[in-house]
Structures are given as C-alpha cells and as structure tokens.
Amino acid sequence: MLGFLKSLFKDPNEKELEKLWPTVEEINDLEPEMQELSDQELKNKTEEFKDRYKDGESLDDLLVEAFAVVREASQRSTNEGFRHFDVQLLGGIALHQGKIAEMKTGEGKTLAATLPVYLNAISGNGVHVVTVNDYLAERDSEWMGQIYRFLGLSVGVILNDMKPDERRKAYECDVTYGTNNEFGFDYLRDNMAYKEENLVQRGHHYAILDEVDSILIDEARTPLIISGPAQDTSKDYKRFNRIIPKLNEEEDFEIDEKSNLVNLTEDGVHKVENLLNIDNLYDDTNFQLNTRLKNALKAHTLMEKDVDYIVKNGEVKIVDEFTGRVMEGRRFGEGLHQAIEAKEGVQVKRETQTFASITEQNYFRMYDKLAGMTGTAKTEEDEFIKIYGMEVIVVPTNEPMIRDDMSDLVYQDKETKIRAAIDDIEARYEKGQPVLVGTVSVADSENLSRRLKKRSIPHEVLNAKNHEREADIIKYAGQKKSVTIATNMAGRGTDIVLGDGVKELGGLHVLGTERHESRRIDNQLRGRSGRQGDPGSSQFYVSLEDDLLRLFGSDNISGILDKVGFNEGEPIEHKMITSAIERAQRKVEDRNFEIRKAILEYDDVLNKQREVIYNQRREVLTTDQLLDQVNKMLEKVIDDLINMYMSEDLHPSDWDLEGFRKALNNFNINLDADDEKLMNMESEEVLDKIILSAQAALDKKKREIGSDDFNNLARHIALRIIDRKWMSHLDNMQELRQGIGLRAYGQKDPLTEYKFESYDLFQEMTGSIRQDLVKTLLKIEIKGGADTRQAGPVSRDNLNFAQPDIIEKQKKDLQAKKDRIQANKNQQTKQEPIVKPDEPGRNDPCPCGSGEKYKRCCGG
C-alpha cells in the first residue's frame, strides 16, 4: 500500500526524469556503433544530419544519433578524453527541450551543453552559449570548441574589446560564445547602426544560458543601457555634498532600510531651503533640484562603499550584490551615480541621456528557444515558469552527494559571531583542512582578512577589487592549509579541486559569515564543496544583528529563542532556527520577485513599442525601396491633415481651409485649387491631388541628386529622425513611469493608466516621425540646381535643411513634460485612497513611492 501511495504522489521531478531515461538508454545502445566509425566517418555525420533536417526530419528525430556522435567525438577530440556521463545526457536532453537543467557544481554542465548545442546548430541558424564573464566565454569556446571543430562546425566568441567586423564573423559561426551583456549590447548597437554593413547579429534562434539564475534573476532589475552625455550637473551634486553632512538623522531625515528609502522631515526641508536659499523646495521650478537632493541624500545614507560600490582608479564602480563582481561599464541611473562620485571626491561625470535600452528579461525572451543551466534554480522555479516558460529539471549527481550541511550557528551580536568564526577557521587551518569563507560584501571580506592576519593565518582574498586573480585563487583553494575569503563571486563557473590528502581531512569546508537574502546564493556557496562525490562540509555563522534577521526575521527568531534559551556568548544551533531563517529568506525572495515582475510588466509596454520602432528602423536601413516607404508616410501625413481641417463630420462651410493651406505650406506644398473648388471635391480626390504634387516634387529632387544619392540621403535623414524621436520618447516614458503610481489615489490602476498614456505618447511620436521626415525631404534645397549632378556624391555641404527650429522644439518638449508632471500632481488629492484602513500617517513614507512624507506628497 505504501509503495502504491508513493507512486501515486511521486515527486514531479522524478516523473520528468523517468520520461528521459529511456532516451538515455537509446543513446547508450548506439555507442558501440559510433566507436566503429573512423574520425572522418564521424565528422561526415554532421552533413548527413543537415541533409536529413532539410529533408524534413525534426531535431527531436535526430537527437539520439546526434548525442551519440557528440559523446564519441568528445572522447576523441578533447585533451582530457571526456566521455559524457548518463546524467549529463539527461541534462543535455532537458536543455534541448528549452528547460533549465539544475546540475550540482562539478557535474560537468559545460560538457553537457555540447550535446544540445551541436544538435541545434544542425539547423544552420546559429546557437548562442551565454556565460557570465569574458574569461569563461573564451575558455569554453576553446575547450568545448575542440568537439565542434572536430565535427565540422565553426565556433566564434564575442569579447568586450572586439570590433564590429570581428563580432560579425563570430555571429556567423555555427556556435557563438559570449556574455549576456555583450549579446544584449550588440542587439542595441545594431538598432543604432547607420550602415547595413555595421550590423553584426543574425537573429535569435536558440540560446543556452550558463548560470541562468544569475542572468535572468539577479540582473533582471538592471537594464542594459547605451547612453550619452547630457547636461552637466556636477555643481549641484558638489553643493549638496557640502549640505548633507549638516543634516542629522531623525531630526532632519528618516531612513527606511526595508524599502531602501530616505526622506527629509519637515524640519529637514526647512533647513535645506535655508541652506540653498530657496523659498519652496517642492515648487515646480525646483523639480530637478529636488531630485538631485534626494540622490545626494541616498548616496550618503544608503549607498555604502565596498558594499554597493567600490572606488578603483578614480572611478566609482558598481558591485553586483548577488555575484560580488564589478559591473563594468554600468552606472546607477537617474543621477545617483553622480551623487556617489561627488560623495567620494572623484570626477563627477555628466548625467546621461538614454539612447537605447532593454532589460535582460526582454532581450532573452526574443529567442525562439531558450534554455539554461545552473547549480541553483529550483527555489526560483515559479519565476522561471511565469516569466520565461522554463521548467526546472533537477538532474541527479553522477556520484552520491556526501557533503555535511550543518545547521546554522546563531549568535547574539556580530562581534561574537566573527570571533567564533575565526576560531573555527584557525582550528581547521591547524588541522590542514582547506576552508572557503563566504562574505556578503567587499568590506566584510577585507575586515575578516585583517583579523586573520593578526592571528598569522595565511589566506587569499577574492572580491571585486582583485577579481582578475579569480582563476588563480580558486585553483589552489582546495589544497591543504588553504584559507580563501571570497564574496559571492566565489569562483562561480570553475571547480575547486581537492589536493592530495584533503579528502582524508574531510574535504573542503565552506564557512558562511552571514546568510544572504536569497537561499539560492547560500546554496551556491555550499555548492563549492562536495563535488563529484567528494567529502565536504558547510556551515553558516549568523547573528541577530545581521541585516536579514534584523529587518525580516527578528519576530520569529526571538520567539524561538525564548523557547530554547540563549546564553550570552554561546551559539544556538537548532533546526527551528535554521527553518526560521529560511522563512525570512523566502519572505525577501517573494518581495524581490514582485519587484522584478512589476518592472517587467511596465517594461513589456515599452518593449512592444521598441519592437515596432526597431523593425521600422531595420526596414529603413536595409530596404532598396525607401521611396515607397516615404510615399506611404506622405499619404498618411496628408490624410491626417485632411481629417483635421476638412473632416467629413463637418459641413464644408465649417472647414478650416485657411489653416489647411498653411499646414500644407509648412510642408512646402502649394495647393492649386481655390476654396470653392475644394469644397466641391471628395476627400479622396483632394488627397490624390496633393499626393501627386508632392511625389512630383520628390521625383524632381531624386532626378537632380541621383537615385542612389537620394536614397542614401533619405535613409540618413529617416534614421536620424527616428533616433532623435525615440530618445525623446524614452525620456517621456521614464517621467510617466515615475509619476504613474499616484493614479492609485484616484482609484485607478497605475499599470492600466500607464498603458493608455504610453500608447498616446507612442502614437504622437510615430506621427511626429512621419511629419518630420516628409517635411525635411520636401524642404531640402539643392545648391547649384542641376549642376549638382556633375559635382559628385551629395553631402551636407551642398544641401540646405529647412527644418523646424530645434531650440523652440526643445522648449515645447520641456513644457509638455512639466504639464504632464503637474497633471499627475493634480490627481493626487482629488479622491480618497483605495485602501482606507491602511492609510499612512502624516509622517509616514508616501505609498506612491515618491520618497516623500505622506503629508508633503499625496496626503498634503
């Protein structure tokens, strides 16, 4: 009966594995046949598979044979003579199915990926293998590239310092390795290119993401942005840098660590107004000044050096809170980076304007099929399924896992905890057992290092400041008497191999000095030990003063401690404590998921618009029939004008014919018809007449300039206008996003309102693109008339661009932004809040997310 119940309520993961094992057996059955083939016959299998695929066989049909071929080729081509384990075949099948293969550290994810990579490369569409850093991309492209090249496939790698032509060649290969950032930024750069030959990517068919949780979850809240310098605000930030130290916590500002917000008190507002010599900090004219002040306040109170960022070579560099790595080339947005630069006394760089951006989430959702692999994904499976449609398959280990994961040791305060941890490290060092010590920040790793030096314990430190030595440090981390202090980066993507005699000492011991907000990050640290059946152990040292417990778990922990007792200076080691800590982590994980989900919901709106604009831009860049597109735009522009001034809903006597003529004249179009004649014409007839006149003008310019030169000119103008309008639209969307939360106080759903208003903004932008392009082409004046044809290719030197006044346009855009901001504010106090029972107090942070007190914001 028990066996029947177990089969009835079998673990879903076990059910999935049971479906895959028969395929593994079929691959194994082909091994003797593959061993009989010569190297050339094995290589010829690739062309055979390609022909069969073209003849209609699916990749699923070819899977068993292709995997068998790769396994045999691997043994012959790699220096190590790798042969895929059965569990690696399981992982490979899951990856081909577009799932996430959770494989423990040391189980050979890199080798497992070669199976689906080869199979999917048969289609000829290109396969992308995405890693988290250049070192792994280059290493794996050479290491695993031995297999692909042996089988006749080409392999490329995208590295940070490559030029466009080198990147294009890499993308043209059957298999392309690179980092998530390089793939994403290449996509953005392609959609900013002004020449077709500068395009490098050739589509998004199939991608395997190594360390998929790091890419799709940890980096999901930080979009990829290409930007350029905007206005110089360094003086403001330097001035605020002198003001902030004069403010006192609680009296002048209050910090909300949970929400990561800092707000001025009423007294603080008055003090700042006096220091700045202004009457009202919240006046519309001080909108930007107020924003920069908030950034400066946040930089001084919530952003911590060697935790959130480091200063290296005179630059502020962001430290990824999940990986512990420096995020090269990335800057905090909306002026926060400038505020930190001023705080640290380094050069304050100009604020930037966004030229192009995309989230990691939406970039990778462009692929026809997406798969991933990592040692830690099951805890986030719900998010992977809901956002990306990827299930997680936990692949069993090749050898039984025998690592001893001990319960947490909980101390009352940080100092007692650290002393106890150092005692443990020292004891294991004297014994000869290697220890990997995990810390959550650069500052913690350096503090621990100083204390170990005082005890004369030799050790290595691996953090964002010396990540260049990562491979060398990890290489020796499993040797006798080795002590390695590391942030979350901890050699992810590389194995810690045990030295001689270490297994007898208990293997590698992992000691965590603090629990991370995410269970997944803790599991990654544990996963450094116990690879391939090796012995090992892990334990976390925790204190009630740690941020996780202090902010999210104090109530539960305190209740348990009252039951089990707590003697000063002694740790508590109890499963109930460990469970309570994990509950606190789940609480934070759920909150972070909701934040990422909300970011994605809003970005999805912009992403649909991005797709439209980028497709339109790509068509302009590559088409040979650009004039046909211009004519369609021209027809739409004139049709809109007719509907505006000569609407069929009005009697002809109410038409604004004078306004219509002025509008046409603005496009350099003269209407050859008097008012009486116009009033007797059908709208289609008016449209046809104007279109013919405008097209004749364009054809004349085309003949004067030359067909090719005119097309190139029109293409350049169109791309320039699209880019300028899109950048302005991105700014408008950002401002809309910042204020849209206030709509909740008018009993409206902010996301729905965002969709409606962003649609209007988008329609306004696309209409403006059409108008500016048509107007510019019709108003181009060619110097020298017909003689230009003998003057060689057309250039800006022999053209006059009779465009609208740019400065006046910028003033209008700025005023429009101010009007939208004021409209948002006007809606705040019109109606009651949605949730009355939880209405905040006057001095509480405003729920709209503005960062202000409720009394000064929505409750004012």
UniProtKB/TrEMBL annotation:
A Pfam family that this protein carries is P-loop_SecA
Q: Where is the Helicase ATP-binding domain?
A: 90-248
E.C. number(s) listed in UniProt? 7.4.2.8
Question: Mind listing the UniProt keywords for this protein, alphabetically?
Answer: ATP-binding, Cell membrane, Cytoplasm, Membrane, Metal-binding, Nucleotide-binding, Protein transport, Translocase, Translocation, Transport, Zinc
Q: Which cofactor does it need?
A: Zn(2+)
Q: From what superkingdom does this record's organism come? A: Bacteria
Main localization of the protein?
A: membrane
- Localization, UniProt: Cell membrane; Cytoplasm; Membrane
Q: Name one GO cellular component term.
A: plasma membrane
* Boundaries of every Cyclic nucleotide-binding domain copy: 309-334
Where is the segment annotated Disordered?
817-860
The catalysed reaction is: ATP + H2O + cellular proteinSide 1 = ADP + phosphate + cellular proteinSide 2
**This protein's record includes keyword Cell inner membrane:** no
Q: Does the keyword Signal apply?
A: no
Q: What class of enzyme is it?
A: translocase
Where along the chain is ATP bound? Q88, G106, E107, G108, K109, T110, D495
Q: Where is the Helicase C-terminal domain?
A: 417-589
Biased amino acid composition, Basic and acidic residues: 833-842
Q: Which InterPro entries match?
A: cNMP-bd_dom (IPR000595), Helicase_ATP-bd (IPR014001), Helicase_C-like (IPR001650), P-loop_NTPase (IPR027417), SEC_C_motif (IPR004027), SecA (IPR000185), SecA_CS (IPR020937), SecA_DEAD (IPR011115)
Q: Which GO terms describe its molecular function?
A: ATP binding; metal ion binding; protein-exporting ATPase activity
Q: How would you summarize the oligomeric state and partners of this protein?
A: Monomer and homodimer. Part of the essential Sec protein translocation apparatus which comprises SecA, SecYEG and auxiliary proteins SecDF. Other proteins may also be involved.
Q: What does this protein do?
A: Part of the Sec protein translocase complex. Interacts with the SecYEG preprotein conducting channel. Has a central role in coupling the hydrolysis of ATP to the transfer of proteins into and across the cell membrane, serving as an ATP-driven molecular motor driving the stepwise translocation of polypeptide chains across the membrane.
Q: Please state which protein family the record places this protein in.
A: Belongs to the SecA family.
Q: What protein does this entry describe?
A: Protein translocase subunit SecA
User: Which species is the source of this protein?
Assistant: Halonatronomonas betaini
